Amino acid sequence: MSPDDGEKDTDFNLMSNDFDIVEHFEEDDSPNDIPLPTFDPCGFPKAKHRTLSDLTLSKPQEDEDFLIKPLQEMSIDEIKDAQKYLYEKLGKETCDFIKERRLKRDEMSKGINKSETEQKPSDYKPSPNELIFKFNKNEFQKYEWMNPPESKTKEEDKGELQLHSLRFNFEGFLLSESENTDHTTYESSLYNHGLDPDKPGYTLPEILHLSQSSFKPQVQVSMRTLPNILFRSYQEVKSTEGPKCFFGYDQYRWKNYINRDLNLLPKVGYYICEYQLSLNILIDSLRCLSILVFGDTAFWVPNNDNKEPDSLYSVGPLEDVIFDYYQFYSGVDIYYWNPLYLDLLDTDLLCSSDTSGSKNSLKYKSDLESFYLSSLKGKFQYYSTDELLREIFELPEGYKSEDELDFLVDNRLFLLSKNNIIDKLLLIMKRYNSNTAVQLYCTISICGFLAYFKTPLANALAKFEPFKNHYESLVNSIISTRSDEKSTVHLRGAVLYLIKYLSIYMSDLESYFHSTSTVALIKHTVTQCFNRELYELNIILDLQKTENSKSLKTYTSVAIKCLTIWAIRGYTIDFLEEFVPLVNLAFFKVKENFKDFKTPNTYLEDFCEPITALIKHISTCVSLDKFHNYPEQIFTNVIDLLYLLERHNDWSDEGLSFLFSLLQINYEHINSLTTLDSLNDIESQVGMLFSLSNLLLKRLVGSLEIPDLLMSIPWFENYQQSGSGVCLHNQELVKKLFNRSMLPFNCLNVVLKTIVWFRNLGVWNKEKRTLVRDLQVLDEGFFKLAEKMIEKLKSVYFSLFRTKSFYLSCSLYIVKSVPILTPWLQYLINLFQFGFNSSDALFTVLALSIDYEMIQDALILLKHKFSQKFDGVLDSYFDFNKYLSRYGVGDQRLPVVSFLGYLTCAPIHITSNSRFTFEDEVNLMSQLLCSSLRSKLLGWCVPGYQFSQFVYSLCSNDSQDLLSRVTLKQYELLQSLLFDLIGGIQDFETHDTESSMNNNIEMTNESSDNISKDWRNALNTFMGIEPLKNKVPSLVDNFSDEEEMNRMCRKLVMKFNSGNIDSPLTVGLLLLFGSWISTEECSNLVWSDESLMLLIGRNLWVDFETFKVYSTLVPTFSVGHLKTLSTPFDSDSVFKLQRKLLESFSDQSLLKQDPVLFITLVSVLKNSRKAELEEMSSNIKSNLLRKLLLNMSKDGN
């Protein structure tokens, strides 16, 4: 669609004015016909009295023929004539209105005067000097502006403020509550004329309102304040719960408010397009955009009123931080972790493609690269939403244009396609090519879009000539400049980040980085950072006075990582041999610093980041090319430093990071050897590794934790069917937490792999008893640490079901893991080479791993250690994830869902129409539940979560034949994975005898006596059973809150009564809703429906041997144990309902061993006295039940 094909689509046109702006500042070159005024040379106009002017202050007389005199001077006839004149001029209706208004004013004045009179004492006499003012209501309103300002908004409850009530100053600092209420000291500029003029500072809605002003300075103030607030939100806030960001609020809540409630990103895009000619507003808007999409890597330092040292921090994607810890395991795969998912709440991803007319099966087209390339060229600027939808997705047959209302265009996709934001950024950079700030923030913003849309956009940018030309000119200009200003350094860093992300996502690196300018920029950055060291080595002759700031060192590590990524991806291996002397010099300086015990790591603290990046690059090159040309001296220095670090083991974060890089390069070096001939003093090296292992174990045992902040990071959005393309956070804070929780495991994993390598080459045997004994002692420490890890990771996995699971289909909600646990999981895998045979360890890996190779290793170990076959399941799991990735823009390198979550959820998935049958998974789960791994596997299931999701699915699905498709094997799995676990059957000793309900017994006197006897024995036995050994969790824990659970219970009862979901599954769910593990309101709701409870009782029967409740339609299907399904005994309301329900049971209820009757009798016997039982029995219609109740009362129960 072209611009000429019709009117522009105003709904999605960013250039249109969406705000209530009444005036724009535009240059108007049109001629002005109004003559310019003349001015006096003195600069001021002359003062004139009004008598000298031609102007008059009197009102013009429209009708001079009839002049109305004052009323006091008029006679009665004149008054009548004036009235007649006014009626003719104004009309009768207007005159009547004026009279009524005058009367109302008089009445109001009388009321005010009366109230004033009543307030005065009866003997009140005014003073001669007293001034008396008589004001009516209107007069009082005129003077209200003189009163102190009052808030016009509704006061919130004391406690935590809502996000829209937070107030900030212009620097982005949050104003405390005391500052908001203290009116003695204030800064006048922070008070505004909004709804809260009495409070200093601005809320975010007020700032956005101010940004709509037609006065540019006000827009500039708002657009400078907004990025300050966004950046400040990532600052660490100390609290009793640990470090927090986002002003102490939850990150999900803050991100949701910024991205959804305020919808900030499109607004910022509008400001960028609207104020391209206002440089100051443009720079602030670009900075705001860069923080929203990528962060702020410029280490911005705000003003510090406390005169304390400023703590530098940067905001950026967490993938950049994780890469330092994961490069050893999976290379650059971590950058493909988080695909972008559709925000379609009602989408059924597994809906079969043969369903005609289904609008809920949108998939991205496979050729997104051409779509992004067309977006860069501005093809879609004037497309409607429906036309844009057809360009992005494969629409199903029968799709109608009105269905587009269900589709929400992602904000970044909207900016990229409808508003061609990248092309506009390139034009802005071209216009302001000499402005460093514009170049910086535009480049960072492009990096943000690259990180979000990944490979398709990177390939499109590689083919987009304006971007390619600007990239080359920008790189060349940075290389040629000699400026040492901070802005130039930050621009260099932004370009290096751009090179890094292009290197990660671009398919054809050779065609893009073939020129030498990119390599020159990378090596020039390293040279600038280590200028003094290279001058000492006589490698360079010019000693530049360059300030080695923290930002320059960080950008140097980014530059080195670009070459590392090229080597990992197979583009080219640059050994950086010219910098090997620099590494040796750094090793020497670290050794010298170790001699001073007071400050052992001074040099290391200064240059840790670039030095470790350089060492990791060398180790990567060694691992990829065993025939390297690195001198042996560098590896000898590595061993010497490892001995030093063993002795000086009070490691800081920098020291631990340095240790990891040394261990890594040492392992890659010895792994490249085929013999031990070149190694000296092997036994001493192994002893050093044992000593390091002990030190790391002591460090981990004392602080084995996963920081809450790392778990609370939104690795993907907390919305059904949506993912997070870029996860932004305070990088320095996250590094500190990773160093504390993950880095020691990285070191330990490398040590373990090195020990295994020595052992495989026969370094020690039985004759070397010292090494054997030390290894046995280490094994005990390794295993104890692993057991603690499994317990902690298991709780993490269960918590993910509540916060990190997402909707796939009707009854399929699968948990998604988080990418921070790989070092822990790799440690568990490594321990199997030391004899650690734990199925729980392997289930931990399967539950939380995000790496296909690690999952495959765990399945192989399960097969060999526990004789379990997983043929075909891994392929099905891969195909399942590959299918899901069609709904996102991410790569297929990493799984989307957890393997164990998939294995335990997919087999019990129920749907009326699905492209996946999960037959292999059903068979495998049935096999595992019949093996020795049954108890271990059930320990990793989350029955309460499955319960809530089944309730949601049944309440939201309208298909009447949905539950008719459940197979017998699925019933068996549902019983094992849901009802048995949540019903607490594993807590009781059950008999293996086969029981069955006999429906063919004829009622005789003898049989009735037997039935009564069986019931009496069963009731006495059941009431003598001890309470549950393990606490059964409340069902409300699996819903958002108690009100939500009550609502879903009501909905389930309504659907069951309508006949839509009549099934043994629904009967079991309703019985759980009425049990003691539910809420009292749900129990009342279920038990108050007499016909419902009688129907449930007819569909179930209880086995008096095991007290398990079975279905009459599926005899082998159990819905739980009576001890769990019983009602709360302390609920008077439920007890009254049961007493009333007791009158409705018949003899057949006893004959069929009705569990509802059994639960009712237990409740009645527990809560009634003998006289009350006799009274109740007189109202019972069933003779058999009456006889049973009387006998139980005589027994004294």
TrEMBL record:
One Pfam family in the UniProt entry:
RPAP1_C
Q: Name one GO biological process term.
A: transcription by RNA polymerase II
* Domain named RPAP1 C-terminal: residues: 165-232
Q: Where is the composition biased (Basic and acidic residues)?
A: 108-123
For the region Disordered, give the residue spans. Answer: 108-128
Give the protein's recorded name: RPAP1 C-terminal domain-containing protein
Name its species.
Answer: Theileria annulata
